Amino acid sequence: MIRGKQVGLALWGAEPVPRLVAHAQLAESIGLDNIWVIDSQLLCREVTVTLAACLAATTRLHVASGVTQPATRHPSVAASALATLHEMSGGRALMGIGTGFSSLRTIGMPAAKLAEVETFVDTMRRLLRKQRVVFGGTEAELAWLPAPIRAPIVVAASGPSMTRAAPRFADGIILHHGVSAELLNRALDWLREGTERAARSRPFNVSVWVPYALAADPRVARDSIRPRVAGALVQADPTQFHGAERAAVERLQASYDVGHHASAGPEHAAIVTDSLVDRYAVAGTSEEVCAGLGRLLDHPAVDRVILNPQISGAGAPSLEQVLRDLAREVLPAL
Asked: What counts of helices (H) and strands (E) characterise the chain?
């Protein structure tokens, strides 16, 4: 842990599983706490297979889907997968759930509704507790599971509705709202409202999803991370922006090419303004990156930051280099 907080890594399945496993091992060796493997079946390798391989090759690292969704994953399948990963690793598995983006848009399906996400999480949790549930009039349980388990299920949120709802049914949240003080505090206000409504007293883990890039030239860093900022903005509410930023978000959402969601140089990334990069990413020189991550890690409401570098697509830096630079230039200063 760094400053008493966890630092994780988003891992895109754009390379063969042995390479992804090597990335997980390197992440563990430099002191990262967890990896979050993207679940997008046409753009990435199969997430559960990748997570199992990473667990088998590490001893301390926690792994999670980052994130899956209820439209293509039946809750019985997801619960069995999470329980299996939990069992094989001694409790190092958790699951991230969201409404879905690239995994659904690439197959012509709409995003899941908030109520569907809540039902999905509730059904999974009951199965993991060895409780019986009803599927289409048929009662069922996770019969192979020896005893109830508590494997964390967290939800991703990019808007106020999911952010307010998450404390009602999830074990934690991944905030996908940007990293500037203004945007983060607004999201945390929504989360606080939801926590009060739910009268929640149980622990609740707060993660922040952070587009991340380090380079000696801050312009190079900011340009390289635009695709990941675009991926965050495509699910944002344009009415929450003003002026040129709102116009840019509306243009981006109208022209976003989901087939290039993982690409390093998609045309839609050029729409993202410098101001949006600064508000949504931690990018720049080692001094700038240390300051940005330090501010997030020092925030009393934040338990974890998840770094999301641009590590796939032609022109992107290798993940090995990203992690080694992180270990050499950033982590010691934090």
From this structure: 12, 11
pLDDT score of 312 more than 80:
no
User: Own/partner pairs for 56-60, CB < 8 Å, 24+ apart?
Assistant: 56/88, 57/21, 57/24, 57/25, 58/24, 58/25, 58/28, 58/92, 59/28, 60/28, 60/92
* Cα dihedral across residues 200, 203, 209, 214: positive or negative: positive
Distance (Å, whole) CA 237 – CA 51? 32
- Helices (DSSP H) in 94-242: which residue ranges? 102-105, 114-128, 160-169, 181-198, 218-233
Structure tokens at 116: 């569907």
Sign of the four-CA dihedral 62, 307, 97, 44: negative
Architecture of the domain spanning 6-214+282-333: Alpha-Beta Barrel (3.20)
- Cα separation, 261 vs 64, in Å, equals 20
Record the tokens describing residue 132, joined without a space.
């019986």
pLDDT band at 235 (very low <50, low <70, confident <90, very high): confident
- Asked if the model's pLDDT at residue 107 lies above 90, the reply is yes
The pTM is what? Answer: 0.95
β-partners of residue 61 are none
Nearest CA to 272 among 183, 186, 211?
A: 211
pLDDT of 14 over the 90 cut: no
Domain spans in the chain, listed from the N-terminal domain onward: 6-214+282-333
CA distance 208 to 307: 9
